[in-house]
Amino acid sequence: xxxxxxxxxxxxxxxxxxITRSTYDVGPYQSSHDSFLFSLGDGKNLENAxxxxxxxxxxxxxxxSSQYHGPCFGQTDLRMNDNFNLPSKCxxxxxxxxxxxxxxxxxxxxxxxxxxxxxxxxxxSSQSPSxxxxxxxxxxxxxxxxxNYPTSWGEFxxx
Length: 159
What we know:
By secondary structure, the chain is mainly beta. It has strands at residues 16-20, 27-30, 36-39, 50-53, 63-66, 69-73, 78-81, 90-91, 106-107, 157-158. The chain is built from no helices and ten strands. Strands 2-5-6-7-8-9 form a six-stranded antiparallel beta sheet, with no helix packed on it. It has a four-stranded antiparallel beta sheet with strand order 4-3-1-10, with no helix packed on it. The chain is globular.
């Protein structure tokens, strides 16, 4: 089952945190040397934007999802727990990525959005299946009856 992403509204001007380069299907941690997180801060000054790449030695903990969590990046770098719209259900504490992207260690989320960056020029024929990038359509959200959070990959995080 693949959930369709709701339309993104360009009229949203609230501070946001965007997640990108997810290379996983639902299940245990997936390795990726290309994963990164970024934050545009308050969205008013791009000099305040932050980029955090996965640390090479922690690439095996790049991304994770389970029936009890939304997308998780690193062990604690960005984790959305069940019922993530309740206060302090999400965490952002640098562990496996190079830089902390959020000043808040605990927060709630209204919506989130997951993106994937694909290099159209890269050849995937030499990659092993565990190194390949999986298209967004293969990232199935957990069953709605087992979670309390929206099941659509394609929502926007707001602090």
